[in-house]
Structures are given as C-alpha cells and as structure tokens.
From TrEMBL:
It comes from Algoriphagus machipongonensis. This is Ferredoxin, 2Fe-2S. PROSITE patterns: 2FE2S_FER_2 (PS51085). Pfam families: Fer2. Keywords: 2Fe-2S, Iron, Iron-sulfur, Metal-binding. InterPro entries: 2Fe-2S_ferredoxin-like_sf, 2Fe-2S_ferredoxin-type, Adrenodoxin-like, Beta-grasp_dom_sf. The keyword Iron-sulfur applies. SUPFAM superfamilies: 2Fe-2S ferredoxin-like. Belongs to the adrenodoxin/putidaredoxin family. One of its GO terms (biological process) is P450-containing electron transport chain. Its cofactor is [2Fe-2S] cluster. The keyword Ribonucleoprotein does not apply. GO terms for molecular function: 2 iron, 2 sulfur cluster binding; electron transfer activity; metal ion binding. It comes from the Bacteria.
Length: 106
C-alpha cells in the first residue's frame, strides 16, 4: 500500500491509502475516493480535466510526457508542478506525496 495526501479545492487535506500492485492511475484512485475529478476522456491524456498540482514529491514522479505537456499547456492556468492524474501510476513514487486538485474547479 502507498500513502499520500490529497488537498481538495477548499484546502482540506486527507491521507489516502491506495494499493500499489494493481496498476491503478492516480485519477482512478481519486475518483474511487469520490473526489470531483471529471476525467472526461477516461484517462487518455486528451482533456486535462484530471489536472493536479504536485505540492510535495514531484522529483520522484519524473517528467511529464510530451502528450501530457501538450494538454497542460492548453489550460488557462498551470504550474511547473502540474500533472495529469491519469498519467501517474500508483506506486512507491507517490509515497508521502502531497497532491492538490486543480481540475475544472480552479
């Protein structure tokens, strides 16, 4: 299991525990945890409605792919630590991270 923290649009933080052996994406875990993540494209990195900002732990996640960056750059506002939750796989790299929801409710 992997533990990380999610900060919602109101600034409330909650620790999430997620299985790291099933190949889930961060987007899938956020949706399963009932966070308001639209994920309109279903996780194909085509809509950016699962936009998150990595407040802590970005270095462990590596760099965003070109396809991911293309979507992020089309957003009205994105940050150097912005990522698409659909492109982050649940694993040890997320342990201790803090993820802030951005998505549609910016």
């Amino acid at each position: 299991m992997v533990n990380f923290t999610v900060e919602d649009h109101d600034g409330n933080r909650q620790e999430i525990e997620a299985p790291d052996d099933m190949g889930f994406s961060l987007m899938e875990i956020l949706k399963a945890s009932e966070y308001p993540v639209l994920a309109t494209c279903g996780g194909m990195a085509l809509c950016a409605t699962c936009h998150v900002e990595v407040l802590e732990g970005k270095d462990e996640l590596g760099e965003a792919t070109d396809m991911e960056l293309d979507q992020l750059e089309n957003l009205p506002e994105y940050y150097p630590t912005s990522r698409l939750a659909c492109q982050i796989r649940i694993g040890d790299i997320l342990e201790g991270s803090v993820i802030k929801l951005r998505g549609e409710d910016q």
